[in-house]
Amino acid sequence: MNNIVNTKYFEVGKNGISPFQNMMAYMGGSMFQTIIDNPITSYRQLIQQYAKDSNGKMVSPTMARQEANKVFRKSPISVSLSGLKPRLIGVGFKRVPKFGFLLGTSYFMKEGEQPGLIAATSASIFSAPFINPIRMIEKQQRAHFKETGKEKSIQSILKESSKKQFKPLFRGTIPLMGHSLASATTGLVGQPKLQKYIQNELGSKTSLGSFGCNLIASSLVSPVYIIMTNPLSRLEVIMQTSSIQGKSITLTNALKEMLNDSKSFGLRGMFRGQAIGIAKAIVSLSMFHQGRIMCTDGFKYMNEEDK
Q1: Rg, the chain, Cα only
Q2: In a domain, 143, yes or no
Q3: pLDDT (tens digit, 9 = 90+) per residue, 68-116?
Q4: What average pLDDT score do residues 228-233 get?
Q5: Among 88, 173, 188, 255, which residue's beta carbon has the most beta carbons within 10 A?
Q6: CA proximity to 285, closest of 206, 227, 213
Q7: Distance (Å, rounded) from C-alpha 26 to C-alpha 227?
Q8: What three-state secondary structure class fits 243?
Q9: Is 203 among the domain residues?
Q10: Which residues does residue 58 pair with via DSSP β-bridges, in sequence order?
Q11: How many domains in the chain?
Q12: Rounded to whole angstroms, how far apart are CA atoms 148 and 43?
């Protein structure tokens, strides 16, 4: 059985690439995206996190943005790099399960190089318990910038979590499943298909290259993706930035907090960070797929040379 799996997994298919190389291309694209979009990711969390003042009172989206700007201007390098280490580590811990379920399901369903909806759903549900602790650590690292001007160390976060049998690391798992499903269906499944369509329609008739088609596809998909995920992202931030030592915020309480926010500030309250979220999504999707395509083309070229 192991010999069959190993042979099939490393065997170059008709598409010019093996399942293992396809997995590595997804991992390479993810690492490239993570490094490029980290400053935007950090800034967006600050905007969403500073929805409350020091007394726990909701503040306007404008004031939250001003607070985020103040922190960012004070320590631009530190904020831009905050959470990057666990995110890069998370490329392995988060992406191996997610891409493993995605590409594994796609492989067994014989969907070819591009995964479909069922594969995306499988990846979103089954990879969430592996991904959530990394996302929790990322957010906890940035959560103390306003008070201390420094990111919290991974060691201290794990030490605090260990006192509660590491249960805090799984806060926000349910909204993450929804977030991950929306991300997989729009970003991993929808964007490549849209890019291929744009490439066929415009690429052959204009001077628009692969990167241009990639950017257009990401720009079209991103607003849809952010509208779907921004409220879920808010829930994650609310649940994952509260003190580990204190009482956890339940999903019900997080929903109530969002509802109160929308009552006070309308849709601007519910969709805090929407504009920066769209910018982040465009950059993230474009960089991920560009990195993935470069790795895929490199593997295909290498396979051709080895023939």
Answers
A1: 20
A2: yes
A3: 888 888 888 888 888 788 788 777 777 777 777 777 787 777 766 667 7
A4: 83
A5: 188
A6: 213
A7: 25
A8: coil
A9: yes
A10: 52
A11: 1
A12: 17
pTM: 0.61
Q: Which residues contact 229 (CB under 8 A, 6 or more apart)?
A: 178, 179, 182, 183, 277
Structure-block tokens of residue 75: 């320590």
166-219: per-residue pLDDT in tens? Answer: 999 999 998 888 888 887 788 777 777 787 777 777 666 666 677 777 778 888
Evaluate whether residue 10 is within a structural domain.
no
- Look up the CATH number of the domain holding residue 67: 1.50.40.10
How far apart (Å, rounded) are the C-alpha atoms in residues 276 and 159? 33
Q: Which of 135, 190, 140 is nearest to 160 (CA)?
A: 140
Here the tokens at position 33 are 């995206």
Which pair of tokens denotes residue 93?
A: 């811990």
* Alpha-carbon dihedral angle through residues 175, 178, 183, 186, given to the nearest 10 degrees: -150
Alpha helices in 199-250 (DSSP H): 210-240
Domain of residue 207 covers 19-160+168-297
Distance CA 211, CA 79 (A): 29
Residue pair 189/116 in contact by the 8 Å Cβ criterion: yes
